[in-house]
């Protein structure tokens, strides 16, 4: 039972991470109608920036802060240089061009930081576990991740739904020309939204980094999961992305935790360890296929166009 | 009718003649590297041509085409591992399974369009990718070495390098011819009609879903064939064959060569794989000339150039290489 509870929390934590990626992706897709395969590269860049700055300043928090700023700037530069000419073009063009960017960033990172990869170490006070329920201990850092991302999600909601800039973003999403005719600087708005998406992706990369490893191509597989999240949630919907991210995170983690034992009941021990992760991954894609068949617009379709 | 002598036709003719005569050059110079490279080029060309059938002519952007490479390859590998080495069993089974997979994926994903179609094909390919990762008995994520190439009794000997080269050559030519005939047939016209306006095609009475699904399955089977050949060529299969970036590579080949023509993807594959092979040397040379010393590391970063090149092609050369050479007037 404790194990189950712990895995639930792990699933939510993965879901939160996916949400950070998917929120940027779904904003960029919903507002600019742009398929961005290079989003995973920003996740990777965020982790590299944070690792570098944390190493330079000897402070985890400073590393995160400077890393966020750097990823935001990188996103803005990327938008101005490479993404801007892609608006309004075919989706195939987006796929191809951003695939090219992905290759470019992988090589660039290899050139700057070398092929070996980096690590970020947590400050020592983060390494403890907290008692959530009597007898239930959970690593403090993972609790911090969950709470921070919840706060980010809330901030994002307030930003989009309750502020003037959020109103402009929604206006740009529903009718670009009309918003432009009313005097909204659409180009600047798009650049800012892309920068925001980049910062969210980078943030996901840097908070995940202490739990795993900072390496080239780290964003590639999680990017596909983020795409699954926005398809399930409904493209363009932040609320949908939030719900779908938690569903996908829970399925993936639960599958990995419990399917191996289930397989072992029927097959051998080793078959369980190898087939479990494969099965849980398959479960996610099957869920996505089922949802696409019955609700092609996703669970929470953004406002009908 | 004699085809007109345009630059485009000349390039196609030169490419075919070079491919046909390459083993001769290898036999004379003893340089077998080019032959191995071109065997690979021709196999991947089959895959790119099959992708272009649905993507360029049918407007169905499949981002999971590498899955069929994997299915074809894994059928050969798994059967070989289980002691069934006969090509008469392996090849038909691989093609049938590729077709069935395409039927399932197509039946579900063709209900969606646009970016949803791109994503759902990608998701199905990822699913197969994880299945292959979980096949512990067949190497899991380490992959599987194939001890013997497909056995066709006394009929064909695939271990003969030159024979295998020409087998791939003939199959590539057959694929190109088949796709070319199909694109220009009534069936192909319907498919192309669906690309430009599906609603209108339905309105004039075509069951577009069935047409598109058939086309999708044909492309899957053709790519499965490429997978069978690839497994026989490298004697090795692994899940990385189906990683989503491989599907991206196939799209790059098709678009780089030009989606507007049947032969374009072949040119695209040749150019991409040659770049992959020789761009590092060119970079090394340039760095040597400009800095005066050999920078070994510079050679590794060829994708630093390829990435922005893709972006430029998308922005300024939509027709790919085929578009560039057909815009040059006869001279």
Describe this structure in words.
The complex is a heterodimer of chains A (305) and B (331). The relative contact order of chain A is 0.18. Chain A has 305 residues and is mostly helical. Chain A is built from 11 helices and 2 strands, in the order ααααββααααααα. Chain A has helices spanning 2-32, 39-57, 60-83, 91-113, 140-162, 164-174, 176-181, 186-208, 218-233, 238-266, 269-294, and strands spanning 129-133, 136-139. Chain A has a two-stranded antiparallel sheet. In chain A, a hairpin with a 2-residue loop joins strand 1 and strand 2 (136-139). Chain B has helices at residues 7-29, 33-57, 66-81, 87-109, 115-134, 161-183, 186-203, 208-234, 244-257, 264-291, 303-316, 320-327; strands spanning 144-145, 236-237. A two-stranded antiparallel sheet of chain B has the order 1-2. In chain B, helix 7 (186-203) crosses helix 8 and helix 9 packs across helix 10 (264-291). The radius of gyration of chain B is 20 Å and the shape is globular.
Give a concise summary.
The complex is a heterodimer of chains A (about 300) and B (about 325). Chain A has eleven helices and two strands; from the N terminus they run ααααββααααααα. With about 300 residues, chain A is an all-alpha fold.
Indicate the topology:
The complex is a heterodimer of chains A (305) and B (331).
Chain A: H1 2-32, H2 39-57, H3 60-83, H4 91-113, E1 129-133, E2 136-139, H5 140-162, H6 164-174, H7 176-181, H8 186-208, H9 218-233, H10 238-266, H11 269-294
Antiparallel strand pairs in A: 1-2
Chain B: H1 7-29, H2 33-57, H3 66-81, H4 87-109, H5 115-134, E1 144-145, H6 161-183, H7 186-203, H8 208-234, E2 236-237, H9 244-257, H10 264-291, H11 303-316, H12 320-327
